[in-house]
Amino acid sequence: MTADRVLFDAPGPRARRRIRVFTVVSVLLFVLLVAVALRQFGQHGQLAADRWTPFTQTSYLKFLWQGLEGTLAATAMSALLAFPAGALLALLRLSLSRPVRWLATAYIELFRSVPLLLLLYAFLLALPGYGVNLPIFWKLVVPIVMVNAAVLAEIFRAGVLGLDRGQAEAASAIGLRYWPSMRLVVLPQAVRLVLPTLVAQLVNLLKDSTLGYIVSYPELMKQGNDLTVYTHLLIQAYLIIAVLYVILNFALSQLANLVERRMRRRRIQGRVAPIAGAADPVALDAPVA
Amino acid sequence: MNVVLSHLTDLLAGFGVTLQLTAIGFLGALVLGTVLAVCRVVPIAPLRVLGTVYVEFFRNIPLLSLLILVVFGLPDVGVTYSLFTSAALCLVLSGASFACEAIRGGINSVPIGQAEAARAIGLTFRQSLGSVILPQALRTMVQPLTNVFIGVALSSSLAAAIGVAELTNRTQQLTLRYAEAVLFFLASGAFYVVLALAGAGAGGWLERKVAIKR
Amino acid sequence: MSSTQLRRGGKRGWTVVAAAITLLGAAAGCGDSPNAPALPGASGGEGYDALIQSAPVAPTSLVDASPWASKIRAQGNLRVGGTDAGPLFSIKSLDNGELTGFDAGLSQMLARYITGKSAVKDLTTLTITTVDTREALLQNSSIDAVFATYTITPPRAAKVDFAGPYYESGDAIMTKKDNTSINSVADLNGKTVVTEADSTAALEIKKFAPNANLLLFQHDPECVAAVQQGRADAYVLDQGILVSDASSNPAVKVVGQPFTHEPYGIGLPKQDPSAKQFVNAWLQTMFTSGQWAKLWKATLGTVVQGATPEPPKIGSVPGS
């Protein structure tokens, strides 16, 4: 984690001066580039006020808000189902019995390789012919859960395999059998190891919800598409949608990190008092991406 | 079924474009991702900020948004790229953010003693990173990078939304002509599964090769 | 990054987010601007509602005779496959969420004919369909009818039934305002032509200008932007939509006359042949009573120049 602090010496006065000069020059260049781009943009009339003000109207904002609600609802339900399902699949793949392992592996390999688009079409077109016609919300959520459970299973499995062997050995040394040792010793630590990747996958889950238009589910991307048709303001609508998504995903990952830090602090406070002068407990963990 | 077989050449041509997009996207993402990972590690503040902002932005923006902004927004800023170039560019930009995080995770997973030892024997930043840290980091990097490959391969299907004549786009055009949606989508799905499994297989083989045999 | 750095980075990020939200909130306080882009031909509102509500209701015996119609009456509304982002034909109003347009209006009138209801919002339930999903959704009974500028073609007629045609349109060409080299479809050879991925125009262009370089995008505004930015030389699509686009965009123009013949039909499930009979009979009454012409005037007629066209002859097209 602090390898980046160790790899180079603290910069001396000349190096510091060089860095300062480089910083100033690069910032100036960047500002120049942005200014040129904005001027070009403005010359094509894209910065005109009447292209941007329509988006401040309450009806448009309400329209976008409905899309946001749809996105959040689909993401929340998918996450609630996919994470436990992924953990379960990972455990099944690490099972001691060969047929169970084989089945779990087959599922994971298949659903990791299928584009979500395809699965959504299957639920929309093929399955109703066999009597399985789910409501629109579930037509979006179930395929997302199926695909993401497979991806999450691989992440959990990587965590379990990446954990120091000593932990599992110590667990069996004190008499725990396979599943109790997995449950009490290995899995909690493995989850903590891959937590940043799990948070990243949560963001991917939200981006998966942008395919909701295929099953007619009203979410933010579809509302954005509709706005471009209503207003003919292509760039403005898509820029606003892009910014909204970036803010949304950023907020989501920060929220997840906050929850994770709270959990860890509570756990540490409950047990061992930190040794005076020891490194920050956070630093000992896997890198926070 | 016959209609699919008779248009197999069409689908294969589309698959070829998908392969090109995937190859360029993944290799570009690797190169740019390494550069960004190094940026996030050097002592120069603006480079660290650039790396962090880049990763945060391109990880959080949906690929579809990015594609449309590049294809329709950039011409108004002065640069117009062909559709294929735009798609490849977006895949590289987006994939690089994930690749950067994978590489950084790999670097950070190397025990700190290695870096300290490298410095202790007098290696410079470039030498310690290149000869000591990165080769060991490779072990931890392989699995996340495989995921980046699969991500790039499957998201190349979004290039159909901006008109690139790759597999999904051709499938849509054939469906338009023959109205056999399910069959064509099953066929194109098979191609994607083959591609992703090949990537996962290669990743698994590489992982086994660099694993420490205890 | 240490925990303090992460927290600082997170705090910085949150400051940006907070600033963005305050800006948005302040801007929203500006209320409704009078410069809202008006939707040509799809203003909905009371005149449109009154038109739908003036449409006739079927006698109960007619509905009883058709199992398809009886089921719809029992449901209480018509499950329609179409779009809500198609200018002039089927577009949702942002203010009240109501679906308006030529296709939408016909579907609402048909729903009223069968169920007898008056509230326009309750008449139909829309499922978004695309070229890939239309036939399959009709076949597995997820929807009752398709109103989606659905061109009647024999291969499609093999999978679904078509009532109509209910409108005969044609594809036209849009170019940049200062482009003088393209005046008809023959000039498209060797040029880059853009159209919507979902439309039959893609196939028609191949027939009329086999050497044209074809580009496909997903939505109408993207195709217009492609022409405006020089990515494509021409945009080919249904004439009504192109004229509506050109009327709000001074940088492009529509050239020549429609060069294809696009008969639009109502997609119906093949499983129940009574559906096609029922809807064709209803269409005929719409034509003769003048309702069809009134609807045309209220929607397409607001942009397409010329007098109201004659309604097409039902069953005149192969496949209908």
Please render the helix and strand layout as text.
The complex is a heterotrimer of chains A (289), B (214) and C (320).
Chain A: H1 3-6, H2 13-43, H3 49-52, H4 58-93, H5 98-113, H6 116-126, H7 136-162, H8 165-173, H9 178-208, H10 220-231, H11 234-270
Helix pairs in contact in A: 4-5, 4-7, 4-9, 4-10, 5-7, 6-7, 7-9, 8-9, 9-11, 10-11
Chain B: H1 2-6, H2 8-39, H3 45-60, H4 63-73, H5 83-109, H6 112-120, H7 125-155, H8 167-178, H9 181-210
Helix pairs in contact in B: 2-5, 2-7, 2-8, 3-5, 4-5, 5-7, 6-7, 7-9, 8-9
Chain C: H1 3-28, H2 45-53, H3 60-65, H4 67-75, E1 78-82, E2 85-86, E3 90-92, E4 99-100, H5 102-115, H6 120-123, E5 124-128, H7 134-139, E6 145-151, H8 154-157, E7 161-169, E8 171-176, E9 192-196, H9 201-208, E10 213-217, H10 220-228, E11 234-238, H11 239-248, E12 252-255, E13 262-268, H12 273-289, H13 291-298
Parallel strand pairs in C: 1-5, 1-6, 9-10, 9-11
Antiparallel strand pairs in C: 2-3, 3-4, 6-13, 7-13, 8-11, 8-12
Characterise this structure.
The complex is a heterotrimer of chains A (289), B (214) and C (320). By secondary structure, chain A is mostly helical. In chain A, 75% of the residues lie in helices and 0% in strands. Chain A has 11 helices and no strands. Chain C has 320 residues and is an alpha/beta fold. Chain C is 41% helix and 20% strand. In chain C, a hairpin with a 6-residue loop joins strand 3 (90-92) and strand 4 (99-100). The longest helix of chain C is centred in the N-terminal third of the chain and has 26 residues, at 3-28. Chain C is globular, with a radius of gyration of 23 Å. The chains are: A mainly alpha (289), B mainly alpha (214), C alpha/beta (320). Chains in contact: A-B, A-C, B-C. The interface between A and B is large, with 59 and 62 residues.
